[in-house]
Design a protein that fits this description.
Homodimer. By secondary structure, the protein is an alpha/beta fold. The protein has 13 helices and 18 strands. The strands form two sheets. Strands 1, 11, 12, 13, 14, 15, 16, 17 and 18 form a nine-stranded mixed sheet that branches. It has an eight-stranded parallel β-barrel with strand order 2-3-4-5-6-8-9-10, surrounded by five helices. Helix 2 (22-35) crosses helix 9, helix 6 (115-124) runs parallel beside helix 7 and helix 8 (190-204) packs parallel to helix 9 (232-250). The structure holds pyridoxal-5'-phosphate.
């Protein structure tokens, strides 16, 4: 996809707009699959939360991916996208027993991450197989908000609670079919996976009827040219060896599962936004775009880096800019960034905008959420229309005659 294609997309569908490249998604899927080609049974369950447009889900389904979901709505979306229930895993945190029951009734696989719900679910549905999410107490992840496998984390069942877990399983006679962990996002060091895998293998020995071990996700992707990333190929060869050895010891060919989000879609996405104002102050030059953290919150939420390029003037001389949004709080996308000279009306592209970007977008400031476009086989396909005022007002109840004209006079 060239800058010319991107500019055409912004012109045709308006800006701001999200654009995803299907070829990149497919390439990432194949890369991960190839890295683990030495494992007999591999299952990738795409983490829907990263980018949940139904067309993206359909693409994943067509690649043979499963789906990792964290809410009943994601489960329903997955079914609508054509995933078979057995190819969907429900991995929620802190949701009600009712929500888990609803997912179980839809026939999807269940992953439980606390003993209270495990006991209740197991007592009620001892025949429904359940995977358990273990907290291996490993500190990993690029930021405290996305480090979820450590001892203070709310996620998973602590490895120190295995005796209690086993008691629940024995008393309820429930069937544990999988062991799962997910320790964080943006994990660079493959030793984290390898170390945590040992803990999972140890835990797995307690269960005799396993079908799979799910190593979660958290692979770090590059955010700019020359950036470091998780060495997937090295992880593939080292973990494959450990996993195959474990299967031999366990006496069964288990499925090795992952649930990647960012790895599959981050680099495939770009966010295009127009510069409304170039404002020179005493200390800096601001480029204010027609967007804000209502559309792309990652830089403000966890300081994530998005490379920004001026695709309207890619050959211009570089200057330093602070790129900011139009929201009524500070919403800085980048400070003192070298970008080719910006004029008002230019289109900027934000790279790595496939994962956790649109899915975190909101209507804050009563702004519309942007359109989404898929670049597929050399053509732009609209996969979500830009919202309109009707979308903003849709569920609001305009109560007639609630306030009398005298309201102001009678207020104390
Ligand atoms: C349980 C679980 N699995 C998978 C993922 C996907 O992680 P990533 O996008 O880093 O691949 C997440 C992300 O938060 C998660 O919470």
């Amino acid at each position: 996809m060239t800058n010319h294609d991107l500019l055409n997309i912004a012109k045709t569908y308006g800006d701001p707009v999200y654009v995803y490249d299907s070829e990149k998604i497919i390439a990432q899927f194949n890369r991960l699959t190839n890295a683990f080609s030495g494992v007999k049974k591999l299952k990738l369950n795409y983490a829907a939360k990263a980018l949940s447009n139904i067309t993206i889900l359909k693409l994943m389904n067509s690649l043979g991916s499963g789906l990792d979901t964290v809410s009943i709505q994601e489960v329903q979306l997955g079914l609508l996208a054509g995933f078979k229930p057995e190819n969907i895993i429900f991995t929620p945190n802190g949701v009600s027993l009712e929500e888990i029951e609803e997912a179980a009734k839809l026939g999807v696989r269940i992953n439980i991450d606390n003993l209270s719900i495990l006991e209740q679910f197991g007592s009620k549905f001892p025949k429904v197989p359940v995977c358990i999410r273990i907290n291996p107490h490993v500190m990993a992840g690029g930021n405290s908000n996305i480090s979820v496998g450590h001892i203070d984390s709310k996620f998973g069942i602590s490895i120190h609670q295995i005796p209690h877990l086993l008691r629940i399983v024995e008393l309820t006679q429930m069937h544990i079919n999988g062991i799962h962990m997910h320790t964080g996002s943006d994990i660079l060091d493959i030793d984290v996976f390898l170390y945590a895998s040992e803990i999972l293998f140890e835990t797995a020995k307690n269960f005799k009827e396993l079908d799979f071990i799910d190593f979660g996700s958290g692979f770090k992707v590059p955010y700019k040219e020359g950036d470091i990333e998780t060495n997937i190929e090295e992880l593939g060869s080292k973990l494959t060896e450990k996993f195959n050895a474990f299967c031999k010891e366990y006496g069964k060919e288990l499925t090795l599962a992952f649930e990647p989000g960012k790895f599959l879609v981050s680099e495939a996405g770009q966010f295009l936004a127009k510069v409304n104002v170039v404002k020179q102050t005493t200390s800096t030059v601001f480029a204010s775009i027609d967007s804000g953290f209502n559309h792309l919150i990652r830089p403000m939420l966890y300081g994530s880096y998005h490379q920004i390029e001026n695709i309207s003037n890619p050959e211009g001389r570089e200057r330093y800019y602070s790129v900011v949004g139009y929201i009524c709080e500070t919403d800085t996308f980048a400070s003192n960034r070298r970008i080719t000279e910006i004029s008002e009306g230019d289109i900027l592209t934000f790279k790595n905008a496939g994962a956790y970007c649109f899915t975190m977008a909101s209507n804050y400031n009563s702004r519309f959420r942007p359109a989404e476009v898929l670049w597929h086989k050399g053509e732009a396909v609209l996969i979500r229309e830009r919202e309109t005022l009707e979308d903003i007002i849709k569920n609001q109840v305009d109560v007639k005659n609630l306030f009398s004209k005298k309201e102001k006079a009678t207020a104390k």
